[in-house]
Each structure stands twice: as C-alpha cells, then as structure tokens.
Amino acid sequence: MTFQNLLVGLVDRCCRNAWRVVLAGGVLAAFAGWYSAGHLGISTDTDLMFAESLPWRQRAMTFRDDFPQYRDLLVAVIEAREPEEADATAAAFADALAHDPAHFLTVRRPDALPFFKQEGLLFLDPPELEKVLDRTIDAQPFIGELAKDPDARGLFAALGLLGTGVEQGEANLAPYLSALNGFHQAMADAIAGHPRPLSWTRLLGGELADLGGKYKFVLAQPKLDHSRLQPGGAATQAMRAAAAGLEFVKSGDARVRITGSVALADEEFASVAEGAVTGLIGSILLISLWLFLAVRSWRLIVPILLTLGLGLMLTLLFAAAAVGTLNLVSVGFGILFVGIAVDFAIQFCVRYREYRHEHPAPAAAMAETGRRVGGQILVAATATSAGFLAFVPTDFRGVAELGLIAGVGMLIAFFCTVTFLPAAIGLFRPHGEGAEVGFARAAPLDELVRRRVVLCYRDGRARKIFGVILNLDMADVVWGSTTTVEINRVDFSEIV
What we know:
This protein has about 500 residues and is α+β, with helices and mostly antiparallel strands. It contains 19 helices and eight strands.
C-alpha cells in the first residue's frame, strides 16, 4: 500500500465514522486542557531563557550569589521641597515596607546607614571640610544656645545674641548670612500668608546640603511570583499603597516614584501582554476574513475552527509534557500555530469544494481531496516543522523551546487536518457546489498557463528532473532548441 493510498484510507475512514472521531477529539481536547492547566506554567524570569552552561551566565550567577542584596530590586525615589521632609518620608516609607513581610524580603536605605551618619564628613575634599569646621567653630555660640533650648524660645534667644554682638561690634555676621537670609525669607513668607518649613540642614550646611542630591532612596527586594506575567506586580501595588498613606505625600510636599529592575521588567511584560492580546484579536479577525473568502460557508468555517482548537490544545499538551514552563518567547507559539495551521485546513476545504463540483457524492469528493492534497499538506507541514525544529540546538532556550513546540505543533496540525477535519466536515454536511470554484473572470488565464510555460535550464538533465518532479508524461513535453520549454497538452491539476 502506497503512502497516498494510506492517506486516502485514513481520510475516508474518519469521514465515515464522523461522530466517533469528533467525540474522541472533544474528549482529547478536554483532557489536554485539564492536563495543561495543572502542568504547564509561565515563567517571566528572563535569566532562564539562556542555558546555564554559557560562560557569561555562569559569571552572572556567581555575582548574584556573592551579592544577593542587588538582585531583583524595587527602588523608591523620594523627592520633597526640603531635605528634612524627604528624609522623614523615606524613613516612614522604609518602616512601612519593613512591616510587610508578605510582599518584601528586605528593605534598606543606602543613604541612611549609621556609617555615613558618623563618618560622612570624611568623604568631603579637604578644602571643603576645612570650611565646614571653620563655620562650625564660628557658630558655636549660636549652636550652644539652641542646644540648651531647642525650641522657638531658644531660636530667638540665639538670634538675640547675634543682635547684641552686632550692637557691640563684636560679631561677624558673614558666617551666618545664609542662615539669617533663610530666617528672613521664612518669616516674610509667613507674613504674606504662604508659610513654608525652614530647613535646618540648609541653614547649617549651606551649599554642602545639596551635594548628595535632592533625592532619597529606599531599596526593597520583593517576593516575586514568576507564574504571573508581572512577577513583582503585587509588591509594586503594596509600595504604591504605602506611599499614598505617608504624611508629606498626602499633603503634596513629597513625591514617591517607583523604579528598579523588577518594575521595569514588569512594565515590559505588561507591554508584551498587551501586544499579545492585540495580536490575538487581529489574528482572529484576519483568519475569519480569510475563511469567509476561501470557503464561503459556515458549514466549513466551523469545522476549520474546531480543528484549529483541537490542534492548539494538543500542542499545549505536548508543551506541558515536554517543556513544562513557557517563557516570554515560547508563549507566542499559539499565534504561530493558528496563523500557519489554518492554511492547511483552508487548502483542504478549498479543494473539497472544488471536488464537490466534480463529484456530487460527499464520500467520493472527500476521498479525492485526500488523494490530491494529503501529500501536499504533509510536505508543507514537514518543511515548516523542520524550519522550527532547526531552532532547538541553540543555547537561547527561549527560541529553542519555541522551535520545539511550534515544530511539533505543525505535525499535530497535519494530523488534525487529515483526521478530525474530514470527520467534522462530514458531520456538518456542507452543500455541494453548483458552479466551478474560483474566480470566473480569471478562467482565460488557466488555458494560457496550461498551454505554455517558460522555464530556464542549463543542460539536458534538467528535462528529466522537471518531468519527474511534475509527474508528467514526457511525450507531452516538447523541448525547444533554445533555453525555453513549451509544454503542451498538460493538465496541471494532475500535478502533486
């Protein structure tokens, strides 16, 4: 028995046992869905998309093991009008996150370590350090009064002491100009009805207060859920909720923004999800349009859609058994499968419509369809599968897994096309064709194509190859003496 006869027998048997095949396909699809739901996951960890044997991946894993505090961070950037407001907001924010172990593993403030509070002046250049020490010595009387009475009364007593020194000609106000200007501006704003806080950091530190920048940082390591498209989404929402409850944030005096590797990755994953949904909707619309243009009958469109659904579920079953976890690249196999596998079903149904015009009996038309297009679809599915499977040897696991799933999926699509699709067509019983299928206006071109084909060849061996490939009777081929070939009396519908 030849392979072609085997395909014809398979198509005919499935068509004759339509109810059994469709029922078996439904049960198989349900089982595939159940198994995939319990065994197929989605990982958004981009590191897992590359083989661990790669040298750079091994170095990256070593670095992550040696410095775990820099892994998977959410970074809160706090900005406020005054340094004290920013520092108080950062402290309150870090404390709120530290009391949320359900979402965060560690929380720290790199700019508020005890070492920097005790030894921070050592990071200044010697000339700047000398200026700070000189101002501190000059301001000792003023600071002493504040130390004795650190409230408004002590503040105005210290200012009164400066005034007494000026009256007696014993005080140099040059070291205090920035502080006095700050007091003056604060009181002027209060009198004008626009009170604002007075920054002691800027008053006492001067220009040094802004050397570290106006931002404060809180670093948090969230608990990630890689089974979700946004692994850090829950932790990010918890950070936003905590920030919204802070005093200076509610008053509008401070602002908290969230960034970091986890937040950026989640944003990218959200974009991928949005693009996947948009692409899926677009694919469905385009496929519906092509199906309508190709087969023109819901009795054929529904079997095609059912066949695609069964093939997709069986491909999911294979992915769950062979891979277990989809990554951000391999998760796109569904769109690839639907976009390519639908071509197999369309070709099968278009040829079936054509042969229903020539063979009114559905069984005869179905057998003729299997004989004519079964081998063609197999060649197309095998070639496409080989193209995808060529990705498997790469060290880029994301692409390798996509190639494996999509490659096997093409073979599954062929199997569903020659088994489930004939059964579904037999079950829905589409009407016969009253006229020849195709574009009637283009009919004159068919004869032109049949009567004359121009080919280029180099030697006589091409003649034999051409005849073998097209399965032509060489008596029907008239070879010219030039580099053109004229083919007469050849029915190209017989070409397989």
